[in-house]
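WARN no homologs supplied; continuing
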Amino acid sequence: MSTSTQTVHVHTTSRDYDVLVGNNLLAQTGALVRKAGAFDAAFVVSDTNVAPLYLDRVRTSLEAAGFATQSAVVEAGERHKNLATFGTILEGMARAGLTRDSVVIALGGGVVGDMAGFAAASYMRGIQVIQVPTTLLSMVDSSVGGKTAIDLSCGKNLVGAFLQPTLVIADVSCLMTLEHEVFIDGLGEIVKHGVLADEELFDQLTHSPLRQDSDPSYLVHVVAHNVSIKRDVVGADEQEHGVRQTLNLGHTIGHAIEAASGYTLGHGHCVAAGLCCVSRAAEKLGWAPAGMSARIDACVTAQGLPTTTDISTGELFAQATHDKKRHGSGVNLVVPTGIGSVEMRHVSLDELAQIIELS
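OK structure emitted
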């Protein structure tokens, strides 16, 4: 398998852009950003986990390409994805003298990508952002599609904006420095993609789980393939009015688990558990074929991810009712109907409580 960079082109109504997936791309950041636009300056947002590893390399590359470059380093972790940190980033951008011709570089995982993207969408009513994801989760999911947000005390991602990136640079060499639990966290979204749209991918994961020490060319292939799955959905429904909601498979219960844990559990771990929970409930309610949930449990287990939670059903229900996917007196729930197929169901809050109880 070739180790060359793979390019996934994303088309949306607001912007077209490329997702570059390759090995050892960070040293080329400056040249790639220069090719992406006539920017007057670059502002790199990173966090306390990623900055010591990669910030100097990225800044050096940007400066070598002629960019005036400044940066902000925020505390790592979902619990810091809040209004206070968001304000710190915006103040840093203002002090740096960014203009509407400047670009924000989001260097990190999904938390950094969400906050930096939202800051770019808000600053001067919107400047451009380039996503440089460094975790598996952010490479296959959050860096693509233009969703940006911060959390409020009442729930996850309640304040945000859609801002498609100008470019995504996914360097799989970054995966080598991740803690094991952070690496496998990304597998939750990859399994979700398999259940959503690709039975071959699902079976492959069940029998040959993706490993951190996999050949870089294989990592490039898997990441690019998953980006393509998300690309197809986002291209059909940029702002989540219809089919894009299917990407929330596993998220209604998953987000509830995440919030109830105080964001101590990884997003992918929670999505995996939420996916298994909704699958078991769907099968018990006759919405899915017998044996489907066992297959999903087996695939999730093969990745080293949880299939359930010990959080009480009452707490899960309370958290789920605060989720942004709530619509009036119910929620739009994505239900797996087989491996590779799902359907949207609008369920009442009473029905949601029953589903959580059955899970």
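The longest strand covers residues 330-338.
OK
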